[in-house]
Design a protein that fits this description.
- The complex is a heterodimer of chains A (391) and B (168).
- Chain A has 391 residues and is an all-alpha fold.
- In chain A, α1 crosses α2 (13-22) and α5 (80-107) packs antiparallel against α6.
- Chain A has helices spanning 3-11, 13-22, 36-55, 65-76, 80-107, 116-138, 143-155, 163-171, 178-210, 229-254, 284-292, 297-309, 314-317, 329-348, 355-390, and strands at 25-26, 227-228.
- In chain A, strands 1-2 form a two-stranded antiparallel sheet.
- Chain B is α+β, with helices and mostly antiparallel strands and 168 residues long.
- Chain B has two domains: 7-37; 45-167, Rieske [2Fe-2S] iron-sulphur domain (Rieske Iron-sulfur Protein).
- In chain B, 27% of the residues lie in helices and 27% in strands.
- In chain B, the strands form three sheets. Chain B has a four-stranded antiparallel sheet, with no helix packed on it.
- The chains are: A mainly alpha (391), B alpha+beta (168).
- Chain A binds chain B through residues 147, 150-151, 154-155, 168-170, 172-175, 177, 179, 183, 270-277, 291, 294, 297, 352-354, and chain B through 33, 36-39, 42, 62, 64, 66-69, 104-108, 121-124, 137, 139.
- The complex binds protoporphyrin IX containing FE and FE2/S2 (inorganic) cluster (FES).
- The site of protoporphyrin IX containing FE has 25 residues of chain A, from α3, α5, α6 and α9.
- Protoporphyrin IX containing FE binds next to α3, α5, α6 and α9 of chain A.
Amino acid sequence: MRLIDWLDERLEIRKLIKVTLIDYKVPKNINFLWSFGMLLVLMFAILFISGLFLLMYYKPDSNLAFDSVNKTIMMDVSFGWLFRHVHAVGASIVFLLLYIHIARGIFYGSYKPPREVVWITGYILFVLFSATAFTGYLLPWGQMSYWAAQTITTLFEKIPFIGPDLVIWIRGDYAVADATLTRFFALHVVFLPVLIMIVMAIHLYSVRVVGSNNEDGKPIDKKKEGVPFWPVFMSKEFFVMTVFLLFFFFLVFYKFDFAMDRVNFEPANPLQTPTHIYPEWYFLAYYEVLRGFFFSQNLGLIAFALSMVLILFLPWLDKSPIVSGKNRPLFQIAFWIFILDFLVLTVLGKLPPTGLYAWIGLIASLIFFGFFISLPIIAKIEKKQLEGEKK
Amino acid sequence: MSDKKDMSRRDFLLYAIGGWAAVGAGATLYAMYKTWEPLPEVKAAGVVEFDLSLVKPGEIRVIEWRRKPVFILRRTPEMKAGCPKRTVRTSLGDFTIVIGICTHLGCIPNWESDKNIWHCPCHGGEYDACGRNIFGPPPRPLEIPPFKLNGNIIVLGEEGPEYKAMIG
Ligand code: HEM
Ligand code: FES
């Protein structure tokens, strides 16, 4: 008896494959932007495996961490440098994939009914990846690691009443110290990756229940119109993955320094702030919203918090019955302004917040929120237009 | 046993188990919360002594207290401070003693001796020789740590009369 038959009798493996992979029909009118979900699964696997091998030599102790990364892993372990570069470049590129994946969802209205749960679980994944990147960034215990953690934890101090005590509780010390390093380590290597895997499973399951969206935003007749996820969709996906991996390993071998800040090759020094502190590129836009309201620190903090959660509420902000942005000229304008604005914020995030830059930062921050305000208005206009057509 | 009685008995067991589980979950969360508090040795290392006569006029020293840098600046007349509430007076002269953490987002400002100001490298905040915020995003002056004076020895982490007079 073949192994698959033996398993099938005991685990119904054929039925499982049929239900999750073959009967899952993907629309034909999708484009390459629909390949980013599986690219993200691939990227997480790469981070998981490279992280596992870093873990074998990494030492989570403020006296040992820096050397365990920069000496042991980088110089002594055979190919240790490769695993570190893969992990650091991977952590950066995973956000590029996430942003494209999310932008695709916004443009084609993939957050609209019945895909709200897909959208919410996706948002949770984004938060979890951000938390994983933030905690992981502290681990090499360099100057940028230390001061990024110090600055971001200080933000919690501004929460009314509990703020100051909360910060000490999060750090386990009066400042970022050994206690902070070891707890961030535990979160980074166990808790957050496990949560990511669970939420990823729910995310994929929810897509299978409601089906993929498509360019026109019209639901398909599953029996007649779709193509099977396996083998048809995946055969194309493997091609995209191959191209992506070429790009990824080009970065790993030739351009890795974009993901590893020079300042971080100096060991953490709690008594000496580096001249400029800035987050990794993928957080720069939110950072610029924080600084954008330069005249009021509290306003900046509120805007910063809002800028990260607003996207979760898209299904309730945009209630237009037209799903795909392809059929929504007004929405398209708002969308492209938003994308451009996000890029402008990202660029500004690394420039000094003075003079003209400060004002552009403020305007760009306001435009960022303008997008979310425009959504209900556009939806209203579109509803009116549709009613007019019916008459 | 009647059906009704049976149901209420089940309900009772359900609530009892549920309640017991809630107590257990609460206790577990509390224990988890407590593990993240600073360790006793961290809390205990909160008092530091320093001899102010080691600082020359116009010079600034940085000492560590509760993992924070504390700036000790021995003022010179040119600094024209004029901030009695932010001045530590000793037989050696006037000192500025502040926690060297920017009140904006927690970077460490640098002393610029040509201009007699602290300049914060992160977002360009500035403080005068008294530690008062004079430019940029910082919302408040640099904080003054609790201290006590024993002659020319300063004890950080204990509140003496001079400190109480300052904050009062
Ligand atoms: C199970 C999965 C993972 C494990 C076991 C793991 C483990 C580790 C270890 C041991 C380090 C310290 C060594 C080093 O800094 O190179 C590290 C660093 C790091 N990790 Fe992870 N990691 C995992 C997943 C992730 C994910 C999903 C992300 C991002 C979304 C991420 C982002 C980072 C970052 C930004 C660093 C610092 C990179 C550097 O500058 O060297 N990790 N990780
Ligand atoms: S932290 Fe000093 S000016 Fe922002």
